[in-house]
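2 proteins. here.
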Amino acid sequence: MGQGGVVEFSYDLVVNALIAGLLLGAFYAAVTVGVSISFGMLDIVNIAHPAFVILGSYIAYIASRLTGIDPILASIVMLPAFYALGALVYQVYYASFERYGQEALRGLAFFFGLLFVTEVSLVLLFGVDYRYVEAAYIGPNLCSTEIGKFAVIQAVCSLGIDMPLRMLVPALVALALFAALQLFLSGTFLGRAIMAVAQDQLALRLMAASPTRIKRIAFAISIATASIAGALLIVIQPVEPSIGREYIGRVFAICVLGGLGSLTGTLIGALLLGIVESFTATFYGPSWAPAVAFGFLLLTLAVRPAGLFGR
């Protein structure tokens, strides 16, 4: 902030704010992708998804502390367990609400209850203290590592660009997660069935596919992504049980901004939100970032109500 309240924009600040926004946005995308599947494709308003992300953070924390395994690797190992948890949650949701057509309000209350129970259980088990993990890439900057000795990386570092590995590694993992899901959804029969289940269940039945089974698989996949997103979160920052509340508004905002059911839209929407938050926090202060980011969301929806990639 310059004299007279005028904001001073310098090359270093602008470039680093852009890089930080892209890295932050990639992480937001990893947290949101599960909601993009459950809400955007299945029309299930799973407001408990951030709680499953925090659960993933604590699982990564426990595995890292007890065995010394890398937290991100631990989250990949735990994918089958989170998949099974998601399948169980959907089966209860279906048997209790969806099959009777009561998913609108009572289903929402069900997921709110899951959010509350998960958070309280974590408080009882771990308390309210912040927990963190240790890994070789938490702390160093890309320019200070062995990779930084390559000519291309040196050229980037010479421009004054700051790329902390604790943000870069999660961003790369998030992009890999998106690529894997996109290949699965577009390149397999099951993936195409998941994208179609919310649009035409009769057509699925004619193809000898059970809509309930497809939705159970899709919802299980959405919860499985929370395992990886949780590990990325605890790599980026320490966590405590209630921190998931900070992401409820963001994940649904990104999902709507990108266009319901569009993974490409989710990724681009998350990157845009991350950039907006980063620039706002850099030049005007962190307290303004959420307000400006959601203002950007409202402005975008005013111009394009279906979202960036909405049908």
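next one coming up
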Amino acid sequence: MDSSISGRGYVHPEVLVSTSWVAEHLGEKGILMIESNEDTLLYSTGHIPGAVHVDWTADLNDHIRRDYISRSGFESLMSALGASPDTTVIFYGDKNNWWACYAFWVFRLFGHRAAKVMDGGRLKWEKEQRPLTKEVPSMTPASYAGAKRDEGRIRAFRDNVMKHIERSLPLVDVRSPEEFRGERLHMPDYPNEGALRGGHIPGAKNVPWSKAVNADDGTFKSAEALAALYIAEQGLRREDDVITYCRIGERSSHTWFVLTYLLGFKNVRNYDGSWTEWGNLVNVPIEREVTAIVGREAKVRA
């Protein structure tokens, strides 16, 4: 366990490692660094020595169905990366580890348990002026036997969300306040990825994902600060059945990681269909906050 992480009060500090820990363990047998970015071209501009690239669009998603790769596809990916089920994979990436946590979540779907995230991601590594290389490592292919994809424990589908609403169970919308209120269909400076309507799922609490990280270096906030954000301010409880969502499931996987591993929530699922799906469904409930002419905010449910 990384001593610089263990003092922050996390329930599962073993899933995080610091940049210093990574620097000390680079090249060790049984450890595989994986870079996964929103910007899929970023890896080629320089990456941690020995790190391989996992492209969230090309490597993790089915190219026809809106779903993840099959079990055999995951086995082929891991085999090509030279990984075994015992290989410790350490994810890192841009955007304060959005996509690193997303890849971590997908790997968990396939039952790969030996996984960690490098706290602070590329931002912290670069700010500390640690080495980067453009050399792509040559991996010795392995034979990887994976588990059947686990759909129920950490992944939610739209029917699960409907039942959640009916039972008034907690949902966490991690998008920006403007998206949550229905003023925008996407983040500023990002394209619309298909949603036709704005708003949020009824009953959802809006906690933007970025509130969980320190702005200066992208590291996760302490357990005390996270508990204040999610438990004290929002009234969530560690025993709650919680569903997180965003626009396409990447930001919400970051919050899923925080709630599950750093705060120790027992039952958190990520709704990866998120607003791109929900905002297009026929006859589903949507709440939207609109500002009237007189300046008062009203919540409208459709």
